[in-house]
Write a structure and sequence with these properties.
With about 140 residues, the protein is an all-alpha fold. It has one domain. The protein has helices spanning about 5-25, 35-65, 70-90, 100-120, 125-135. Helix 1 (about 5-25) runs antiparallel to helix 2 (about 35-65). The longest helix has 29 residues, at about 35-65. The radius of gyration is 16 Å and the shape is globular.
Length: about 140
């Protein structure tokens, strides 16, 4: 396979996911529920999932580039946290949005949690399930 296409296949998913996050944070804030705590929970779970996915896609790309898995896991969390910080900074200039250090912490925690699950638990899954993740270079 062409080296360019191989690398594109590694890095296009995290770049596209980062663009999706940017797009979400550029719009107005949606209301998930009229009950404050329910709205809060849904939005914070969204942060965990969005930035956990970004960290996972970055981890996959780094491992595909030959970075050892432990280093790739650390750098994926660092990158997702950095991107979460820049996303909150971006929101400080977006009408109807505000920057929140709490959201950066939730992004970081979500990234770390998801990478921990990927790093620790995927390798011990049953073989039938594990094969799929091995093809994605996550194990």
């Amino acid at each position: 396979m062409n080296k360019f296409l191989f690398r594109l296949g590694l890095w296009l998913p995290p770049i596209a996911w980062a663009a999706l996050i940017f797009r979400f944070s550029s719009g107005s804030v949606f209301v998930a529920s009229k009950v404050y705590w329910q709205d809060f929970i849904v939005k914070k779970i969204g942060h965990v999932l969005l930035f956990g996915a970004l960290a996972t896609l970055t981890f996959r790309a780094l491992v595909g580039e030959g970075v050892p898995k432990k280093k790739a896991a650390i750098w994926a969390v660092v990158f997702a946290t950095f991107y979460g910080t820049t996303d909150e900074f971006h929101q400080s200039f977006t009408q109807g949005r505000d920057a929140s250090p709490r959201d950066v912490l939730i992004d970081a925690g979500g990234s770390a949690l998801v990478i921990y699950i990927v790093y620790k638990f995927l390798p011990i899954l049953p073989k039938k399930i594990r094969v799929y993740f091995e093809e994605l270079n996550l194990i």
